[in-house]
Amino acid sequence: MSSSDSNVRAARTPTVAVTGAASGVGALLTERLAASEEIKSVIALDERRGEVSEAQWHTLDVRDPAIADRLRNEGDPVDVVVHLALDLDLETDPTARTALNVRGTQTVLTAAAAAGVPRVILCTSTMVYGALPDNDVPLAEDAELRATAEATAVGDLLEIERLARRAPRAHPGLNVTVVRPSVLVGAGMDTALTRYFESPRLLVVADSRPCWQFCHVEDLVSALEFAVLEKADGEMAVGCDGWLEQEEVEELTGIRRMELPSAVALGAASRLHRLGLTPSPAGDLAYTMHPWVVSGARLHDAGWRPRWTNEEVLAELLEEVAGRHTLAGRRLGRTEAATAAGAGATVALLGTAALVRRARKRRGL
User: N or C: which end of the chain has fewer CB within 10 A?
Assistant: First the structure.
């Protein structure tokens, strides 16, 4: 076989390294790639070993520079790295979360370049576009990233986007693809946006225009595989086709709304977060107020299609959150949940205000 034939085969059946391979989206992607005839081999990287026996496992922290040695993979060099070792957990300390997300991405990009890996795929979120009243509906993938760092982990995602843009200049020859899913559902996803549907009432800010677009993790995994096989590249948004208006969401869920003036809703969210009573900062509310849906044209033009609809994903989300109860982003215990459900949304809001007053009294504020 000539060297040119060998290169063609390598491009057609790449060796892929996946970080964060032991859980969540990383585990699903590792399993899918390991079973694919279009993939030569899979290198799985995580702090613990996962369940996909067909992959070659290495246990390490992605912030460890030794990851470059794993990516060299003597005899079977890695063709593409999919970096999914991110922590977007609401309950994680923000400083620790940023240390993993940003430093981990920096290390993976640098290690890939040092090991001669030609491509890295990063995964952020369509949240980086920002939720703003003047957003186009839908947004094009090349729209300006106008988010601010006021919502959960969005600051980390924006920094990862900056690293993605800078990496090809800092490391000539390194190609970086960014995949941006909309509201992720499935595989135990727990975010401020999924918790929105655990509330006894759906909070709606007066005069706002919410639009909902979901992404099932199975569709994200298939889009990532699409990118691995170089069927699409660049900056790609992933989500269900179209979107749901707030009225449609309320009809489909059967959950009634609680409408509040903007100043009241944002003020309460800010106070609750400042006092440590909820993990969700006030910035999360913007994503339930203004549109931030995307067209996904780049993947569509390349021939990819989602298998899930917004209605189907929302139905699965409701099944996943059944039995959970959240108020202002804070998970409630059984007694609190029963009180909130029995009292109704208005009284529950007053109860939240009482929590604020009690916290202030304890702290001498």
Answer: N
CA dist 281 and 10 (Å) reads 46
Number of H helices, E strands in the chain: 13, 15
**Cis amide bond preceding 181, omega within 30:** no
Give the strand pairing for 80-83 and 119-123: parallel
Give percent of the chain above pLDDT 70: 85
Among 247, 257, 254, smallest CA distance to 344 is for 257
Nearest to 347 by CA among 160, 201, 134, 147: 201
- In the numeric block, the tokens 């916290």 are attached to 359
Q: Quote the tokens at residue 349.
A: 């809001």
Handedness of CA 273, 278, 280, 286 (dihedral sign): negative
* Amino acid (one-letter) located at 76: D
Residue 185 DSSP SS3 = strand
DSSP for 6-46?
Answer: HHHHHHHS-EEEEESTTSHHHHHHHHHHHT-TT-SEEEEEE
For the chain, the maximum distance between any two Cα atoms, rounded to a whole number of angstroms, is 78
Share of the chain above pLDDT 90, in %: 72
Distances (CA, A) of 110 to 43, 78, 104, 114, 156: 18, 14, 10, 6, 18
What pairing do the DSSP bridges indicate for beta strands 211-212 and 326-327?
unpaired
Alpha-carbon distances, residue 43 vs 83, 148, 181 (angstroms)? 12, 35, 24
C-alpha distance from residue 321 to each of 63, 138, 194, 313, 326 (Å): 33, 28, 8, 12, 10
Residue 138 has pLDDT above 50, yes or no: yes
Tokens of 359: 């916290």
Quick one: pLDDT at residue 325? 62
**DSSP class of residue 188?**
T
The Cα 99–Cα 88 span in angstroms is 12
Question: pLDDT (tens digit, 9 = 90+) per residue, 74-112?
Answer: 889 999 999 999 999 888 999 999 999 999 999 999 999
